[in-house]
Each structure stands twice: as structure tokens, then as C-alpha cells.
Amino acid sequence: MLRPSQSELGPLNSVLDPLQSVLGPLETILGPFQSVLGPLESLLGLLRPVLGLLQSMLDPLESVPGSLESGLGPMQSVLGPLEFVLGPLQSLLGLLEQNRGAFKKQASLKLWHCTFSSTGYAKSCEGSRMAVEGHALEFCLAKEADFEEVMSISGDVYGGLDYLPVRYHAWIRDPARRVILAKKKGQIVALISVNIVDDGHTAVVEGLRVAPLERGKGIAGFIQSYCLDLARAQFPDVKVRRYTRAGQLAPETLAKFRLICKQEILCTQFKAEYILPKLEAAIAQLKESGAEWKHPILLGATDVKRVFLSPKVVDEVLPGKTIIQDWAPYQPLESNLEKLVRQDLIWMADDKEEPRVVSLGTAPYRVPLGTGYHRLNIDIFGKHFPRVRNQFLAQVQQRVGTLKGPVYCILYFEPSLWQDMLSFCQTALGLHVDGELRIQNLLEADM
């Protein structure tokens, strides 16, 4: 239908005048709670009768037989403008109703006003402020230009094994993710990220870090609360939030979250050029001794979906029925696998038809630990030690062949296999194992 002219819209101006404030900038809707809730409820009350009136005028016109249309010229001049106006009004009312609940939950917060480009990525945002130890704490979405300042607060994170330097730019370009900054007096003091996965039903919270001089002041709690509020408002289908945490969990943590699963963590360092001969020697010895050596099978994209979505793997192999890729949890869903297979991962299984062990290896990436250091993450799922061991050897062999220099390798696997894996790495490969990082926990709570 052609867009009606301004003269044709004239008869409706008197009806639409009260709605002009709604159709302006969204700041009038997304203001502080106390100033928004009252006008919002009044506006909803105003829109309902207006829409009812417009619909009652439109329905009879649409039902007029085609043979009578020639005699209804004046009415047709009204029909076009009504149809043009009614659609946007109905969409607006739906939007307001959808966000009404979110406003009521924002008693002390202001939901973000973010501007998005045509590609859907966040371009800018107007921050929100809270009082934190006498200073205003402002929240906003991270931008490309914030990279250096973000890195300045992350220097001591994870003992030099921080992944954020290589993921920051991809994170802020991901339309399913929000990367949030907290600023005090214009300076970045904290960061957190939320990634929407599992067909839009799960918010994975990750990447939390607070500037060293600002720790212990409650900023971590504030930015996490704000992050969840934003996820609720912008992704209304989210039902649960998930986190991965290392180490032993405090009772108060277990009281707030459901523990989905645990994986053991084994960390070791080696020089890439030195480990390759040891890997070849270990594999040759296993073949000669008949110690259940069977070379793991590399999986292509089609095989990945078939294997990782098979009921047997989901129920009996994956911990907590979850794929964990370098600390990021995903339910075994086709939409998640579509995203994962586009990454530079090595997927393996001991068997395509009856797999008992599966694994995925993340591409090595540079970390701040030292000059030339790479971090290598290998996630292995299954409880059969010989096949877990075989996939560990094959994953390392696949990755280090293209590397030079020091590698910090982190292996995640079934906790009951800890002693067997530790003994093998020390005796067969001569590796020193770092025992400081031991347990990976997957936690979940309702939104």
C-alpha cells in the first residue's frame, strides 16, 4: 500500500497529537523508574481506547465488497491513513507491554538507551549511574576504542593466562553478546560479559574483572546485577543464567546456584618443539604394549552434529548434558553446534557409531604469561581412561605441530580419572603438572 500524504493524515492529527511524545526518542520511555512507571501506565491506558477506536473504524471498511468501492471514495481516503497508523501503534503497544515488567524491576536502576547499527551491533549507549562508596558508578557498553584501558585493569588476571586480549574485539561485535563496562569518574573500573545461547534461553555470564584498586568495594556485585537486568530486558526468552567457576565452592555459593557438573583440570607447560618427540614415543609405546591404543577419529561438521547430538552421548558422555568449550557451556543443540563448528576447533571421538569419549580442542592463542606463550585448551568428555588419554595425545599432537616456543596446556576431564592422567603425564611424557587449578564447576540459577 502507498504511504498516505500529509493531507490525508490531517483528519487523524487530533487523535494522534497525544501520542507524539511516545513516538519521539526512546529516552522518554527508558528513564529512571520513578519518573517512567507513572507515565508508562498512563500511556498504556491512552493507547488502548485509541487502538480500539481505530480498529472499529478499519474493520467495516475492509469488509466492503469490491463492487461498492467506486462509491466509497471518501471512505477510501481514510482507509489508507488508518492502516498506515494502526500497524505502528499496535507494535508500539506490544513493545510497551513487553517491557512494562522490566521497568517495575528497575527500582533503583535505569535501563540502557543503546543505539544499534544496521548490522545489529551496539554502537553507543547512554550510561546509568549508581552510588558506590561516594562516587557515581556509570555503566555502558564496551567499544573497540576501550580495548587498551580494559587491558590495563586485566594485567594480573588468571596469572597471565587471560583470554580476553584475543577475544575482546570478537565479543563486542557479537550480536548475541553484551560486554558491559563500569566507569568511575570516567575511568574503566570493571568489565563483564553476557552471552545468549541455547536458542535464546540461557545467559552465560563470563569475563568478570575489576581494577585492582577497586576490588572489595562491591563493584563486582553491582555490574553483575546490571548485566542480568540488561539481559532480562533485551532477551525476554532467557530463563536461566550459567557460570563456570574454578576451585572449591563456598556453601553460600551452593545455596544460590545449582551445581550442574564438575570437570577436573590438569595444567602443564612445555616447549612445542620438545613435546612432539615425546608424544610420538608415547604413542609408539602404547601401540607396542597393546594398551588399548586406537587413534581417535577427526570429526567434520556433519559428524560433529550427529555425534554430539546423539542421545547416548548427551545422556552418558557429556557432563551434565553440556558441551563445555574453554569454560563456555552450551547445551547440545543444533543452533549451538552451528556456532561452534564455525570456530577453529578440533573435534574428535573414539568411535562415530558408539562413542564413549569425545573431545574438542581450542586453537592455541597468545597470553600475557611471557614472551611467545600460547595457551592450549582441551575439553575431553567421557570416563574411559585409555580413550581419554588417547584423545589428549592426539589433540596435543594436532595443535603443537604448528607452534614454536612455550605452551601452557590446560586439560579438562572427568574427575575420577585425575590420578591416572596425572601419572601418565608425569611418567610417560615427563611433564610437570601445576596443581593450583584443579576443579571446573558449572553453576546455574533461574533468571
TrEMBL record:
Q: Per its UniProt record, what Pfam families does this chain match?
A: Acetyltransf_1, Hisat_C
This one is known as: N-acetyltransferase domain-containing protein
Tree of life domain:
Eukaryota
Q: Which GO terms describe its molecular function?
A: acyltransferase activity, transferring groups other than amino-acyl groups
Where's the N-acetyltransferase domain? 137-264
CDD domains in the record? NAT_SF
**Could you read off the lineage of the organism from its UniProt record?**
Eukaryota, Metazoa, Chordata, Craniata, Vertebrata
